[in-house]
Write a structure and sequence with these properties.
The structure holds two protein chains of two kinds. By secondary structure, chain A is an alpha/beta fold. Chain A has helices spanning 40-47, 68-75, 93-103, 109-122, 138-150, 168-182, 194-200, 218-223, 267-274, 282-285; strands at 3-12, 15-25, 28-33, 55-60, 78-81, 156-160, 186-191, 203-208, 211-216, 229-232, 241-244, 250-253, 261-262. Chain A folds into two domains: 3-220, P-loop containing nucleotide triphosphate hydrolases (Rossmann fold, 3-Layer(aba) Sandwich), CATH 3.40.50.300; 222-285, no CATH class. Helix content of chain A is 33%, strand content 26%. In chain A, the strands form three sheets. A six-stranded mixed β-sheet of chain A has the order 5-6-7-3-8-9, sandwiched between helices. Chain A has a four-stranded antiparallel β-sheet with strand order 11-12-10-13. In chain A, strands 2-1-4 form a three-stranded antiparallel β-sheet, with helices on one face. In chain A, a hairpin with a 2-residue loop joins strand 1 (3-12) and strand 2. Chain B folds into two domains: 2-67, no CATH class; 76-273, no CATH class. Chain B is mostly helical. Chain B has helices at residues 2-10, 15-22, 28-40, 42-47, 52-67, 73-80, 85-91, 99-118, 123-132, 135-142, 153-157, 164-188, 193-196, 200-213, 219-239, 250-269. The chains are: A alpha/beta, B mainly alpha. The A-B interface holds A 45, 48-52, 65, 68, 71-73, 75-76, 78, 80, 82, 84-89, 91-92, 94-96, 98-100, 102-105, 107, 109-110, 112-114, 129-130, 145, 148, 158 and B 60-61, 64, 68-69, 72, 84-86, 89-90, 92-93, 150-163, 166, 272-273, 275, 278-280.
């Protein structure tokens, strides 16, 4: 396993953000799903060595980030995309990546610039190398943030909501890039998009209220809702989560009545059931 | 003549000659001859054996020279002063080495020197300069690194050079610039140099105090505490002890000197623990 976490806990004031989290992450692409405030970002920050946990242990490549020397060694093998990556707006795209490359100990200028051109090509920003960061669109900034994670070819990629701000075409390209990276590296990404998980993750972890409530394959997550997704011509009477589909029928999450017609569940169905969304008001669920 | 042209048009260096050219086995005259032909003949150039990796690297080096963006003014200035290119690149992102910050510091110092000159060495102007000058380097270091002042902090915090190494690098650069500018202002100050240079030891003591504290506190908080402590001490000297210049008398200077001697080895010994705001 690349990353092992045991009994991880973190509090901010009186709020418990991570509560005794245990997980193991190996090579491939692993998705971290959870609602807002579930603790995803805090967990990823702990793994990315930018935040110290209050309790518990983290081990990545056998290195303990609580120890100064081992933390530095781990950072040499790490690429981290924060949820809110700040930039120096007066820098150009090339200058920003050059700066990060130096921070990643690429001191030789030719080698550094070669690496910058490589990552710019990976995220298709090569033609923006001389553009000031402040002039980039949101999607371009997100791609720039992704580019800096790829510098020095890290073995472990920790990506906090990498598809935010990307248009559908860019998201497809990101998926292709992430799945390619996952062939030989460990990629751990958080997302709100169950489609991203379905498309590229071999494994999914669901976090809610600071606890791991599911750890398995995307198919297993969808399986949580097996037999509990059904279609009807009229709105269901029970207090369940349902919505009207494009063909005018009602797709419902919850216990299927004898007259109901069950359909194959999606990852989103399993995820919503895990979160207890079935108790939501039916009217609120209608879109 | 036409016969010679036809002959040169069809002549190509034999394979053995090309091989010896590629391996460096020809004398200079033969090299010139072969190269003159290669310049005109694409077929022979293509047939010339070469190492693909070496050629790719050579092209990359050329591409880098041609396509490399022109470094920023700050980087060029630092390189001119002998700072290695990659170190200059790192320092270029320091918030308290930005143009706006430097303009602010120079303005404060310029105002102090200007008012002292206009008032012909008024003690109040000297006192204001001596009180403010030690805080400038502390403020610079406080604004040099940390989550609160650096927009890209979270992104760079996960890199191997972040933490104590980057903080110390930035702190040394900021201290050098701030102390240098203040020293320049001191030379322009009217009156005896001894009086106007009385800020130096308190500045060094406060700066080292800043580095020591930053091992335990985020730098912005550490700097704020030190600045508040310094201004508080000055106010007490004036309001309670009724001696405005007490913080700059020889006895006080001796205390600053002792503090510097105590803190300097502390900073050197604990330099790896100076990871302000990091991993908290």
């Amino acid at each position: 396993m690349t990353v092992e976490v045991r009994g991880l806990a973190k509090r901010f004031g009186r709020t418990t953000v991570l509560d005794n989290v245990d997980l193991r992450v190996g090579p491939g692409v692993t998705g971290l799903l959870g609602p807002n405030g579930a603790g995803k970002t805090t967990l990823l920050r702990c793994l990315a060595t930018t935040l110290a946990p209050d309790a518990g242990e983290i081990s990545a490549f056998g290195l303990d980030p609580a120890r100064h020397e081992q933390r530095t060694a781990l950072r040499r093998r790490l690429g981290y995309l924060p949820q809110d990556p700040g930039f120096y707006p007066h820098f150009t795209v090339f200058e920003l990546l050059d700066y990060v490359a130096i921070l990643k100990e690429l001191t030789d200028r030719s080698r550094r610039h070669r690496e910058i051109r490589r990552v710019l090509a990976e995220v298709e920003l090569a033609d923006r190398a001389r553009t000031k960061v402040r002039k980039l669109s949101g999607g371009m900034k997100q791609r720039l943030a992704l580019a800096q994670t790829l510098i020095a070819d890290p073995d472990l990629l920790v990506l906090d909501e990498p598809t935010v701000g990307l248009d559908p075409e860019q998201r497809m390209r990101f998926r292709a890039l992430a799945s390619r990276l996952g062939e030989s590296r460990t990629v751990l990404l958080s997302t709100h998009q169950t489609e991203d998980v379905a498309a590229l993750c071999e494994r999914v972890i669901v976090l809610t209220a600071g606890r791991v409530v599911f750890d398995g394959t995307p198919e297993e997550l969808a399986g949580v809702a097996a037999g509990r997704v059904w279609i009807s011509d009229t709105p269901p009477a029970a207090s369940t989560l349902f919505w009207r589909t494009a063909d005018g029928r009602y797709r419902t999450l919850g216990e299927c009545p004898p007259s109901g017609e069950t359909v194959a569940p999606a990852i989103e169905d399993g995820y919503l059931l895990l979160l207890g969304a079935t108790s939501a008001n039916a009217g609120e669920g209608a879109a | 003549m036409s016969g010679m042209s036809e002959m040169s048009a069809v002549w190509h260096p034999p394979a053995d000659l090309v091989r010896r050219y590629a391996t460096g086995g020809l004398d200079p005259v033969q090299v010139m001859s072969v190269e003159a032909h290669l310049a005109r003949c694409g077929g022979c150039r293509t047939a010339l054996p070469y190492e693909p990796e070496w050629l790719a690297e050579s092209w990359e080096r050329i591409e880098d020279v041609v396509d490399r963006p022109w470094p920023g003014l700050g980087v060029r200035v630092l390189c001119r002063f002998g700072v290695p290119e990659h170190v200059a690149g790192l320092l270029s992102a320091t918030p308290s080495l930005s143009r706006a910050w430097l303009v602010a510091v120079i303005s404060v110092l310029g105002f102090a020197v200007g008012s002292a000159r206009v008032t012909s060495g008024d003690p109040d102007a000297l006192l204001a300069f001596l009180v403010v000058a030690p805080v400038l380097p502390v403020a610079g270091v406080a604004m040099a690194y940390g989550r609160a002042v650096d927009p890209a902090y979270e992104m760079q915090a996960a890199t191997p050079l972040s933490g104590s190494r980057l903080f110390l690098l930035r702190a040394v650069a900021v201290l050098t610039v701030a102390l240098g500018l203040t020293a320049g202002a001191t030379l322009l100050f009217p009156g005896p140099l001894g009086a106007s240079a009385a800020w130096l030891l308190p500045a060094l003591a406060l700066s080292l105090g800043m580095l020591v504290l930053s091992g335990h506190l985020p730098p912005l908080l550490a700097g704020s505490l030190l600045a508040a402590g310094w201004f508080g001490a000055v106010l007490i000297c004036d309001g309670v002890l009724h001696d405005r210049f007490l913080p700059f008398q020889p006895a006080a200077q001796g205390l600053y000197g002792v503090a510097v001697l105590v803190m300097l080895p502390l900073v050197c010994l604990r330099h790896r623990r100076l990871a302000p705001g990091e991993h908290q």
